[in-house]
Fold this sequence. Notes:
The complex is a heterotetramer, with two copies of chain A and two copies of chain C.
Chain A: E1 2-4, H1 5-21, H2 23-33, H3 38-52, H4 61-75, H5 80-94, E2 100-102, H6 103-121, H7 131-146, H8 151-168, H9 192-206
Antiparallel strand pairs in A: 1-2
Helix pairs in contact in A: 1-3, 1-9, 2-3, 2-9, 3-4, 4-5, 5-6, 6-7, 7-8, 7-9, 8-9
Chain C: H1 11-22, E1 27-30, E2 35-38, E3 48-55, E4 66-67, E5 72-78, H2 84-93, E6 100-105, H3 108-123, E7 128-133, H4 154-166, H5 171-183, E8 185-191, E9 211-214, E10 225-228, H6 232-243, E11 254-261, H7 267-283, E12 287-294, E13 304-311, H8 314-321, E14 325-326
Parallel strand pairs in C: 3-5, 3-6, 6-7, 11-12
Antiparallel strand pairs in C: 1-2, 2-5, 4-14, 8-9, 8-13, 9-10, 11-13
The complex binds adenosine-5'-diphosphate (2 copies) and magnesium ion (4 copies).
Amino acid sequence: MTTGQERVESVVRTIAETCVANETYFGDLDSVVGDGDFGYSLARGFENVLAGWDAYDRSDAGTFLQKVAVTMSGRIGGTSGPIWGTAFLRAAGVVKGKDAVSGDDLVAMLRAAVEGIKARGGAEVGEKTLLDALVPMTDTIEARLAAGDDADAVAKAAATTARAAAEATKELQARRGRASYTGERSIGSVDPGAVAVAVLAERVAETW
Amino acid sequence: MTTGQERVESVVRTIAETCVANETYFGDLDSVVGDGDFGYSLARGFENVLAGWDAYDRSDAGTFLQKVAVTMSGRIGGTSGPIWGTAFLRAAGVVKGKDAVSGDDLVAMLRAAVEGIKARGGAEVGEKTLLDALVPMTDTIEARLAAGDDADAVAKAAATTARAAAEATKELQARRGRASYTGERSIGSVDPGAVAVAVLAERVAETW
Amino acid sequence: MKKFVNDPKNFVPEMLKGIALANPDTLKYVPEYNLIMRADAPSHDKVSIVQGSGSGHEPAHVMVVGKGMLDAACPGDVFAAPPMEYVLETAKLVASDKGVLLLVNNYTGDKMAFEMASELAEAEGLDVRTLFINDDVAVQDSTWTVGRRGVAGNFFVMKAVGAASEQGADLDELVRIGEKVNSVTRTMGIALTPCTPPAKGSPLFQLGDDEMEVGVGIHGEPGRRRAKLVSADEIVDELLGAVVPDLPYASGDDVALMINGLGGTPISELYLLYGIAHEKLAAQGVTVGRSYVGEYCTSLDMAGASLTLVQLDDEIRALLEAPAEIAYRVF
Amino acid sequence: MKKFVNDPKNFVPEMLKGIALANPDTLKYVPEYNLIMRADAPSHDKVSIVQGSGSGHEPAHVMVVGKGMLDAACPGDVFAAPPMEYVLETAKLVASDKGVLLLVNNYTGDKMAFEMASELAEAEGLDVRTLFINDDVAVQDSTWTVGRRGVAGNFFVMKAVGAASEQGADLDELVRIGEKVNSVTRTMGIALTPCTPPAKGSPLFQLGDDEMEVGVGIHGEPGRRRAKLVSADEIVDELLGAVVPDLPYASGDDVALMINGLGGTPISELYLLYGIAHEKLAAQGVTVGRSYVGEYCTSLDMAGASLTLVQLDDEIRALLEAPAEIAYRVF
Lengths: 208, 208, 331, 331
Ligand SMILES: Nc1ncnc2c1ncn2[C@@H]1O[C@H](COP(=O)(O)OP(=O)(O)O)[C@@H](O)[C@H]1O
Ligand SMILES: Nc1ncnc2c1ncn2[C@@H]1O[C@H](COP(=O)(O)OP(=O)(O)O)[C@@H](O)[C@H]1O
Ligand SMILES: [Mg+2]
Ligand SMILES: [Mg+2]
Ligand SMILES: [Mg+2]
Ligand SMILES: [Mg+2]
């Protein structure tokens, strides 16, 4: 499975548009044990990305993703600006200079994003953050690619795993981010970041 | 019709207890176009009267009423402190030195109270204040006494007139007091002071 | 009712005790007459200044007692004018050889209490003058009504006469200054929510989720009209539209602009309103020479704001700029 | 939503514009980076002090920029840490030869933004130090969590380092002072109502008519527990019961006591709480040497209050008493 730069761009556009469309939903999720601004931060961030889109240097996939990253972490605040910005920046590094992305590249990008998020925020899997959807989803993608599935099937499997993993965050106690202040009271509600990963994965799978 | 000082005291006690009991009701009436404290002011005022009761100099009806007046106007604020205090003070003057109150005395006391209220607050009949119940009620008392009715019948007639007059304040536009700020919007609701006069007259008639 | 309160009947005394405990060197609380006074009052080389009113408008007036502003404040219960006796005793406690100036917001109850008290004070030999403040343009003045209300503009009168008295002005001069400031000051307010008096325990009036009360009084009295809630821009237009033509304030004028919070509105929103009003005035050629943003005269926990303009001249400006040391401070 | 607002997305910039218009001689608003700075910054004979955080906590921190406190504040959107780039540009704009001190409330987003920005600032040759404030006792500190939050106690750190920097202290000295003040400062808050972020348009959480949130965060984060609303006396017991034993503050201590309003609570109620707390501390042998009552660090329009204690010594007391000239003023 190899996709061209256009596909990379269209996936990013899907992510951006989906975040803008889900501003209220994501914000409501963050109201439960957080401060309610997760939807606002992502929506304003990706609105900036969409606004800057035409001017971005897109000489290759990596350069394009780097511009997205700089917009997110430079202009967006909260926890999500640095976390999502770092994720895009690290992913960009993997495909710097490439204008096509192989299946191996995709997995490497996601692993690099995960490492970046961990380094930036100090979280590990199991601490009730977006990592709890992102890491299992990446595992699934790697496994299905190894099994020789086609791109469409991989995307659908990724979405299924991400959704199940996001739902499973309900059982976790938050140990990072604002939700952690509530201690045991964080158990029983899903993590907004993990749900966002699931929603984005589903939307990407639908529009593949 | 002549009553003794004990009856004067028992009427004042009825007034005081009724105002304390109606704190919430009178306050709610004052919320409609006023500031909601009419019930609170009267209740605190008459609570003070009841608390001071045993210590009041009651050598005659006039002296007793004067003590009530001083408690009201000295210790109670808002519009009601000065207005009710002045009313009691002027009424007291009429029976200064007397320990019995004739029908003529009663009418003179009420007329003196009305003049005191007018002097203190500058209001006339028809401007949507307690005067709009007090003046017609006094007229009725005077007429029924002249017609030779007994005390009980006079009290009942006074209550009926006061109630009808209080209800009729609904049609008036307030020109005095806080309610006047609302201009035409004051039309449609009763004046709290006038209703208080009606409630008190009814209670006095019941307990005669 | 969502309030920090013990027995609602003790709301005012407990608040006053807190003010005194927070300012042990400068303020004194006299429980018998429910008053807050400067610890060093009376000072016989200055006129003493007293303001009374109902409570529930804090920081007005109990928190603006101090050097450069009031010598004493005698509050009544929440939204109720102080009893006449308290006014009288307050005037007597701070009576200075140079006299006493009583400041009163123009309401029926306050007017009666202060008139009765000052008559009695004069009878007792005090040199007393009374000055009524009536800056609220929401209410039409006429011989048929009780006249305009005193609202947040009272701050400017207190500040000006407070500064002048500190500088040694006599009673006549203070009356002149106070009347002058009052005559160039205009205010109008808007409520977004009702307020809840502690002793009542429930909101004083009802306001729909999408409604505002235009021209509201600081005791929750209804204003000019009820209207649909609109944007901050349109609200400022409404307030300026009522205030500016009233004096009128004209192109070339130098003004003080106050955006006063009514109690429940955060200061962020007040600054937002301030910025809009400042620019709209500038567009009309009116220059804001001095700005006031925050809470000056509130209505308990009411969400809302009022806008005040004061026409400045050199005299008023200097008095407003003079220092003051009051309980309501930040650091 | 009952707010004075135009487009909620412009809430923060419109507020910042208002602050600058109200303080034309002393403050500058830089829209590109959403920041408020002293008009005369940087001053090369003092360390520049910057604090950032989400908006919605006003007067913190944009209204406490001025002589004796901050040189600049770089706020993010409502309740969102500022973007890293804004922090970096703010540090660069006020960079002084004596260095820059960055003050940060300890939250995940703020921590990341300030760490990234200070790394980059150092790479660009700036002398930068970062100090985290974490006074909120409601949150337990442990290696498993992100640590305690910075809340209203940040005022004391800002005030102390602001005064010291004005007196010429160098960067090391400021870090020492800031850490010392932070280490003797403890806060806990209680919410009576939720707050409503302008862009969300509805309350951030639900609270029953008879409920309060004990240990609430200034972003509306749930606290230690939800409880039935009780009297002001019992609430003060609850707050002191959490704060006093935490340091602990002991008999013989001289403290600063702050009752901070969370935005929707009128100052009358804050003074009532103050009086109760002052007396209860006195009964424990703890003397209140300095008092603070008002709004210092809010949570939009939330009704509620926090109580902060600071252990005073001669050094801290002198720094707290030093003058300051900030936008958040009364006259
Ligand atoms: N330390 C962390 N590392 C990675 N992700 C985190 C961390 N803390 C929080 N998150 C994620 O960020 C989401 C909240 O984002 P946002 O609302 O922008 O943060 P906040 O408002 O708390 O600053 C959470 O749902 C979680 O998935
Ligand atoms: N000028 C006046 N003269 C006589 N009675 C008045 C006058 N103004 C108001 N009142 C009466 O007082 C009542 C309100 O009393 P109160 O609530 O104590 O006054 P406020 O709160 O407006 O000071 C009104 O219902 C009216 O009957
Ligand atoms: Mg959030
Ligand atoms: Mg009333
Ligand atoms: Mg009243
Ligand atoms: Mg946030």
